[in-house]
Design brief:
Blueprint lengths: L2 H22 L2 E6 L12 H9 L5 E8 L20 E5 L5 H16 L11 H12 L10 H14 L4 E6 L3 H12 L3 E6 L16 H17 L2 E4 L2 H8 L6 E3 L18 E6 L9 H13 L1 H6 E6 L4 H9 L6 E5 L3 H10 L2 E5 L13 H6 L5 E4 L5 H8 L3 E4 L4 H16 L15 H14 L1
Parallel strand pairs: 1-2, 1-4, 2-3, 4-5, 5-6, 6-7, 8-9, 8-11, 9-10, 11-12, 12-13
């Protein structure tokens, strides 16, 4: 072997070593989140999955969470999804709801989980709790965690040379942690909005005073104009925020993960499954009316129909089902683990996706939408006109969307689905789903982080 050949081999070896080193070198990112296992519900899934895949793209996630949170929903099965290699920072939190629960533990837990009764059915205690929540806890009940978190994290950031932080809300008080850290340190800050802030639907129910409303808007605008990068989940939220800031805004939707779910046998009933919270305002009267008419017109429908409610259900919804004499077709499972929810998605005949009929909910992209899409079960979605999720369902060929005026079309599709069920042919045929995989979305997030 001559000298040139030896040098070529050495150069190739050097390049290989450099490539290996580049793959192992990671940039650190500090993620500030309230929801983390054992928290259950959709709020925990987004950053749990981002943290899972970020190391593949050269990003080392460090997660900051409360040490003693008051999670309204708990799913201990999610703990096993957290990598043992991820650094988890914990700091104690005081939540006013902990005091409020002494007066009414049931009502406090209900409100903190998002189940707000209609105005006519609110008790005096519920009205008081809502007023306190809206006017004294600004922007939310975790606001007392801001100051101790800033003190704790400021030291950690300096000692560990952290250059980039992420805050994810709701609760939007976590963005105030990012705001103060940004003002005190030379940092890159990404503010992630899983839901909107002042335009979110439940703000109307919080009985906000004029002062509280202005305070929310002031804080929202300050966060939007201070963060280096804003991340949202929908095009409507992006459009709303563009009117408030000139900072760059990126859409990163939620997505689906490759879940290890055992093969499920389809329900033998014509099962319509709603997975997630059915709020008082998320009460699809046109669906109940369609089902009543189909029951009257098709004798066999009475033997086959099953309504599966999986998650917290408002008493207002149950009262409506009682009014329409549909309760005998209801199986109310209550809250189940994420694993069980996935199993129900795979074996139910039709998956219901219901959103409140309000302009404020057009931007909502429910996390379960993406899990629904890979279940191979048709989605029947109802929401306000021009909802962001309607385009996704249509473009991926995973179901049918209706607004609240399209009762006749909804009834026709229900009947068509029922006939396909009887023939054993009911199934969805999705296209283009890879774009919404958690890994694919995390890759786009990693590129965003590296561009800062």
């Amino acid at each position: 072997m001559n000298l040139i050949q030896k040098e070529c081999l050495n150069l190739q070896s050097f390049k290989s070593e450099c490539t290996i080193k580049l793959k192992t070198v990671s940039s650190k990112i500090l993620i500030i989140t309230y929801y983390w296992p054992p928290a259950g519900g959709p709020g925990v899934q987004r950053w749990l999955k981002f943290v899972k895949y970020l190391p593949e793209f050269g990003i080392e996630p460090i997660v900051y969470i409360p040490e003693n949170p008051s999670y309204p929903i708990v799913d201990k099965n999610l703990i096993v999804e957290v990598s043992k290699e991820v650094v988890i920072l914990r700091n104690s939190i005081f939540e006013p709801y902990q005091l409020a629960s002494f007066f009414s533990k049931k009502n406090t837990k209900k409100i903190s989980s998002g189940i707000i009764p209609s105005i006519k059915k609110q008790t005096v205690v519920e009205r008081i709790l809502l007023w306190i929540r809206g006017n004294l806890f600004i922007p939310d009940a975790r606001f007392l965690w801001v100051h101790p978190s800033v003190s704790y994290l400021e030291k950690y950031i300096k000692e560990n040379k952290i250059e980039t932080i992420v805050t994810t809300g709701p609760p939007h008080s976590l963005h105030l942690i990012g705001l103060q850290l940004k003002n005190k340190n030379k940092l890159n800050w990404i503010a992630d909005f899983r839901d909107p802030w002042t335009t979110i639907g439940y703000h109307k129910a919080l009985k906000l005073s004029n002062y509280a409303s202005k305070k929310h808007k002031k804080l929202e605008k300050e966060v939007l104009n201070s963060a280096d990068q804003i991340v949202v989940t929908s095009i409507t939220t992006k459009t709303e925020f563009e009117a408030l800031t000139k900072q760059p805004i990126t859409i990163l939707t939620n997505g689906y993960d490759v879940e290890q779910v055992a093969q499920q046998s389809l329900d033998t009933t014509f099962s319509l499954a709603h997975i997630g919270s059915l709020l008082s305002e998320r009460n699809p009267i046109i669906l109940w009316e369609c089902l009543v008419e189909l029951l009257q017109e098709n004798p066999s429908f009475q033997n086959d129909l099953e309504l599966k409610l999986i998650g917290a259900v408002s008493n207002d919804v149950l009262d409506t089902l009682h009014h329409f004499q549909l309760l005998k077709f209801v199986t109310n499972f209550g809250y189940v683990s994420h694993k069980e929810a996935l199993e129900h998605q795979r074996k139910s005949q039709v998956l219901l996706l219901i959103e409140i009929d309000s302009p404020e909910t057009k931007s909502i992209l429910p996390g379960k939408l993406f899990e629904y899409m890979v279940s191979e079960r048709p989605i029947l979605a109802i929401g306000p006109s021009n909802s962001d999720f309607s385009a996704i369902i249509t473009n991926t060929n995973t179901g049918v969307f209706f607004d609240y005026t399209e009762k006749a079309k909804l009834k026709a599709v229900l009947l068509d689905y029922y006939h396909q069920f009887l023939e054993g042919k009911l199934k969805s045929y999705p296209v283009g789903l890879q774009y919404y995989s958690r890994r694919s979305i995390t890759e786009r997030l990693a590129q965003l982080i590296k561009s800062l």
